[in-house]
Structure formats: structure tokens, C-alpha cells
Amino acid sequence: MTPSAARRTALAAQGFADTRPTGVPTRRHLQRALDRVQLLQLDSVNVAVRAHYMPLFSRLGPYPTSLVDDAAWSPTARRPRLLVEFWAHEASLIPVEDWPLLRWRMDQYETRYARHVSRIAAQSPGLVDDVLATVKDLGPVAAGTLETALGGAVPRAKGGWWNRSDVKHICEYLFATGQLTTATRVGFQRLYDLPERVLPAAVMAAPRIPDDEAARQLTLRAAVAHGVGTEKDLRDYYRLDPARSQRAVAELVEEGLLEPVSVPGWRHVGYRHVSARTPRKVQGRALLCPFDPLIWERDRAERLFGFRYRIEIYVPEAQRVYGYYVFPFLLDGELVARVDLKADRAAGVLRVQGAYGEDGCDVGRVVSELGAELGVMARWLGLAGVVVGERGELAGALRKVV
């Protein structure tokens, strides 16, 4: 494949070759987007918009975020739960039917946290059973409420596990091992409940999937989301271990579901899903949050787009190159600019704290399209307008068009 064909294949797989809905997006549009991206990463940073909302805006345009909330945290008989939380790429929303495919990871967490849980159990015998019993009685319930119900403030250990209380430790352990899950969130605070009260009965009753078969199915899902990618790209989507990922890729090639391809400039063999589409061109625009699945594997983003991208949240302010929470801008199949965004909810504006163009970009067109998309995003977030700061070579021109 040519690099251009590989890029267009990847964009189509992620839904960027589809036209946005002309009306208000519906649950059907949500499902179609989920069928492409497979999962939505969760992240606590809310400087612009929560990470799990933005990838759908990037693909669908302005949509009611209640579509995600209802699918993940507020199901009804008419609109059953579509998504559940678990560790997939990172903390993620995954389709409920994928829960059984990650039981091997739950087993890994059981082993990984055994020493921590044993230490807590030695200090607080019966705490695991008490937490489960209290969640059964009170759930959906927050960890803080559990602490109170189990006897008031629990001393916090120094160091390790971010100084969480023992109850919070146990909640996270039970979540990671599949004994608890998230029923809903309030202000992004997780409320725990028993999986059998959250997940469909058929999902809970599903037989154990052999670990290698689960890896094969997850790798196939990753291939659908990638269109084309290296083995390491596919592995990273669900954070599989190398040996298991390599076996899965080899099996999928043998089955005829993946096709090895050579892409000039790629150091490693690519694997194309046999149903992947390669459009002749990709048109349209989108702002991408740092946790968008198109770009979350930074080496792949650089390989596909020639776009070096690093998140600078953890970099001291004086050392940041582009800003705290930077959104790449996709235009007609290329990453042409990046903007450091902040939703200033007190002032009611979307602040562009820095705006930077890529080398060789058509500044006039990029600024025009970027300004328009920023306006759409601001309205979607319920903000009155866009305010452009001083940083970046596009700032002056962008200020004139917003």
C-alpha cells in the first residue's frame, strides 16, 4: 500500500470518511460510530471536554451527550445499556458484549493486586466481604459512602496507591477483577454495583472464553478499528501482551481475515483487515482530543500523518511546546494544525490558548475551516463563542475569523 492509501484506510476505519448526520444524531449513529472505534477511553481531565464525549463529536458533529450517558450509565427498558466500564486500552467504555473477552485481564489483576489485598486483609480482616455485602445492600454507591457505611473515616496509608483509603483500594481491586463494576456516574464520580445488576444476564452467563481465543477476537476488533496497522499497533488497542498478540495476528492471517501489506516508510509489516475500505479521498474536518483512538498511539500518528504529537499535561508549563491540552486538527485527511483548548465555563467561552499550523499548510483555508469548527464545538459545549489568545503563528489570523 502507498502511505496515502494506508492513511485513507485508517481514516475510513475510524469513521472519518463518513459524512456527518444532517440532523440531530441518534442512537443509531452512536452505534455505528462505536462499531468503528470499538471503545471510548475515559479520562478525568475536563479542561475542555471529557475524553469519552469528544471522539463522537469529531465523527458525528454536535450530538446530545445524553446518547453516551444513556448508553453507559442511565439505561432504560427501551434503551438498554450498550456500554460498560473496564480496563481495555486504558480505562474505557466497551460494548457490554465484550465483557467476557476481558476475563483474562480480570485474572491478571487478581494476581497483580494479591500482595496489596493481602496486606489490607491482614489489617482489616473481612473487609473485602464487607465491601461486597455493603454494595449489595446500598448500590449503586460511591467509595466515600462505603467508607462511612463501614464505620466512618478509614485511615489512609502513606505512599502507594495514591494514598487511597483501604476501602477505596478494595473497590478498585474488586472493579479490576470484575467483582464490581460501574453502575452510573454522578459528576464523573464512579458509583459501584454488582455486575449481575448492571450487565445483561446473557453476558454474565456467557461461558469462559479461552484466553488465546479472547486475544484473537480482540485483535480482530482492533484490526477493524485500524483498517491497517502493524502488529504492535493492533496489540496496543487493547494492551495485549506481545506473545499473545503475535499468535493472534498469525492466526488471523492464516484464516484470511488479515492481509500482510508493505507500506513504504513503515519499519514493520502492516496488516490490513480484509474488509477495510480505502476511499479515493477523505474530505471534511475534525478536532481530535488527545485521547482520540485515531492518534492515541503517537508513533502510529507520526507514521500515518508525519505529525509528531505528545500530550504535555505532565510537562512543567515553562517547558511545554504547544500547551496543556492540545487538539490536532484534521482537514481533508491530513493533520494540518493544533490548538490548545480550554472551556472557560465561568466566562462562557472556548479559549484557544495557542494555535499552530503544520509546515506547508494552506494557512488561509486552514484558519477558515478551523475557525468554523471551533465555533461548532463551542456551541456544542453550550458556550457563547471562541476567544483566541496570543500564542502560535495561526493565532492572529484565527482571531479575525472566529
List the helices and strands and how they pair.
Layout: H1 3-13, H2 27-37, E1 40-41, H3 54-60, H4 66-72, E2 83-87, E3 91-95, H5 103-112, H6 114-123, H7 127-138, H8 143-149, H9 166-176, E4 181-186, E5 189-193, H10 195-198, H11 201-204, H12 211-226, E6 228-230, H13 231-237, H14 242-254, E7 258-261, E8 270-273, E9 285-287, H15 298-305, E10 326-331, E11 334-344, E12 349-357, H16 363-380, E13 385-391, H17 395-401
Parallel strand pairs: 12-13
Antiparallel strand pairs: 1-3, 2-3, 4-5, 6-8, 7-8, 9-10, 10-11, 11-12
Helix pairs in contact: 12-13, 12-14, 13-14, 16-17
Summarize the structure.
The chain has 17 helices and 13 strands.
Question: Which features does this protein show?
Answer:
402 residues, alpha+beta, five-stranded mixed sheet, 13 strands
Structure description:
The longest helix is centred in the last third of the chain and has 18 residues, at 363-380. A hairpin with a 4-residue loop joins β11 (334-344) and β12 (349-357). α12 packs across α14 (242-254). This protein is 41% helix and 17% strand. The two termini are 39 Å apart. It has 402 residues and is of the alpha+beta class. It has helices spanning 3-13, 27-37, 54-60, 66-72, 103-112, 114-123, 127-138, 143-149, 166-176, 195-198, 201-204, 211-226, 231-237, 242-254, 298-305, 363-380, 395-401, and strands at 40-41, 83-87, 91-95, 181-186, 189-193, 228-230, 258-261, 270-273, 285-287, 326-331, 334-344, 349-357, 385-391. It is built from 17 helices and 13 strands. The strands form four sheets. A five-stranded mixed beta sheet has the order 9-10-11-12-13. It has a three-stranded antiparallel beta sheet with strand order 1-3-2.
